[in-house]
Each structure stands twice: as structure tokens, then as C-alpha cells.
Input
Amino acid sequence: MSSDPVVELGFLENKTPAWKLRSKFFPSKVGGYPAWLALKDLPNGQQLTCRNCSKPVAFLCQLYAPFHDKEECFHRTVFVFICRDADCSKENNASNIRVFRSQLQRNNEFYPPDPAKDAEPGSESPGAADFNNLCRVCGGCGPKVCGGCKVARYCSKDHQALDWKAGHREECKNPETVSKVSCKGNAKFLFPEYEIDMEPEELDERREKTEEEVMQEYETLLRSGRVTRDLDDDVEKNEDDLIKMATKETDKQFQKFRTRIKEYSDQVIRYDRGGEPLWVSLENKPQDIPPCPACGEAREFEFQIMPQLLVHLKVDSPGQSIDWGTVVVYSCKNSCSQDKYYIEEVAYKQDYAPISQVMKNHPEVNMY
Output
């Protein structure tokens, strides 16, 4: 990641070979197993559970985001996990999301100081499986072992049961064929895997609209009753999908949101450490982000996950499965070092607000 204040945008790349998304290449990615940075002392089973249902959370994405001015952050990755249960996806509530930060010095016990060769042979090592028993469903710690084959490892009874029903019932009869690192059960749990390609946001100043212009456009759309339908012919399908997810959203901030992302409608990440998130609504912004419990320093905005990502996760239609307007990640401003390799940070989930709520809470906004 660049230390330049320009916002960096993340786009999905689906042609990257899976081996290039392993730990030794320090990837930014969505889905699949997490490519753990520190290969020991992974988050434990309790940390990787949903705060609502207590079931294991699924790996959503990770961003490789080193701080170039801090030696202990020579390597640095932020991991995001989410519960797949639709009932746990509550409006403006991130209790179903867990975020962890991991960082290493250039000289560390896991990786050589110079970049690894870009080759598939040997790409699986070093990896977390060299130091841990891993759950073959989710890629987290796997302290539980199948009582039959004595090979398959799991993080929980939930994942053991999932894998049993997906095919381990038969596989277990032949222990020599059982894999420690993959199974049919993970296809029912993991999200599709993509590389995240980061590029700077290049705004076309000739097309960038002022607040007044955005408001005028918004009021015109309100009068016409076409706030979420009036799309220009050149808007790509991704923005079309975004509008469908936001059919109840009609506030001024969402119009600003649409205008800002229009040139890069397929962005799934916005990285702007120390900046301001691009909110989807005037409503339900966080009022108080808790400071880092270790060093006491304030947490700052680091990046946000955009709603366009939902289109690629192959989940059910929004509103019937996991959903968000945007997921905003806050991390320790100092990215402080602690006595453990994985430090939990904070996520905030903002959803779209109906126009009635905006008008009630913001009477100063002239809608008509």
C-alpha cells in the first residue's frame, strides 16, 4: 500500500493461480482459506466465532498493508471474517464481523528478508500448516481430530458435521486418502477466491461534481420519483447491481456515493488510512470508535469494503443473506506491537437508510 494520501481502490482479479495467493507471496485477496501472515499463534476458535450465533465465521478478505515508515510493520496484513448466517446480518451492526491485524519485521522467523521466487513448486511453504493443525473446512486452527480416520482436523463440531455430511462419511473409511488441507465441506463454507488488485483512484476533475451539483441532481430525481432508477446508459452492470441492493436508499449521501464511484463502479475496496470513509448514507455513522486497548491510541479509518463485493460472493440475493452498505475497518493509529501475532481491530457496518429516517433526523435537508 502506498503512503500517499491518494485513495487506493481494490478490484477483483479472477485469473490469478491459487498458488500465487499463498502466504509467502503476501497477497491481498478475497475468499478461499486465509493466507495467514504470522504462521503461529493464529486467532483461536473463540475469536473466530460470530458474536451472535457463536458459530465459526468465514474468511472474507485480507489486505496486505505494510507501514513503510515502521520497521515492525514491514509486513502487515489485515484480515476480515464474517458469519454466513443471514439471521446474524443485522442492520448497522457489525457483531457478525471480526477483524484481525498481523505484522512482522523484515527479519522474522517465518520468511526470508527478500521476496520469494514467483514459482508454484514449493509455494505451499512456509505456510500455517507447517506450524499448526488447521481446520480443513475454514483454514483456522483445528484442535479437533476425526475419531475415525485420525487425520481430518476441525475447528469445531459445526465444521466436523458439515464435512461429514459433504462426503467425509465415506472418505473416512480410507484414512490414507484423507487430505489435511482440503475437503468437500469447504465448498459449502468458503467464499470464491479472487486476488485483490490495488490501484490509485484517479478522479476526472472535469466530471467531479460539487456538493451543490449533487444536491440539485438529487432533488430533481426525487421530484421525478426515479432516485434509484434513473441511470445513465453508460453505467456498468456492477452499478446496476448496486442500485438493486439499495432500492430503499434515497438520501443525499447515497447520491454522493454513487457519483464518486461511478468512474470505477467495480471497486470492492477503498483504502485511505487516516482519511474519511465514503459513507452510503447520512444516517448511522459511528459516534465513538473505541481506542486501541493495548496502547490507548485512537483507532483510525483504514479501509472499507464496498457493496459491489456481494455480487461476487455467490450468496443469496441481498436482504435474504449477508448484506451491507459498506463495512468500515478501523485500526490502531500506531499499529502497535503486542505480545501476540494477531490483534483484533474494529469493524463498523453501515446499511442504507430509508428516506423517512433521513427526513426525520435531518430536517435541514430540503428534499423538495
Q: What stands out?
A: The two ends are 43 Å apart (CA to CA).
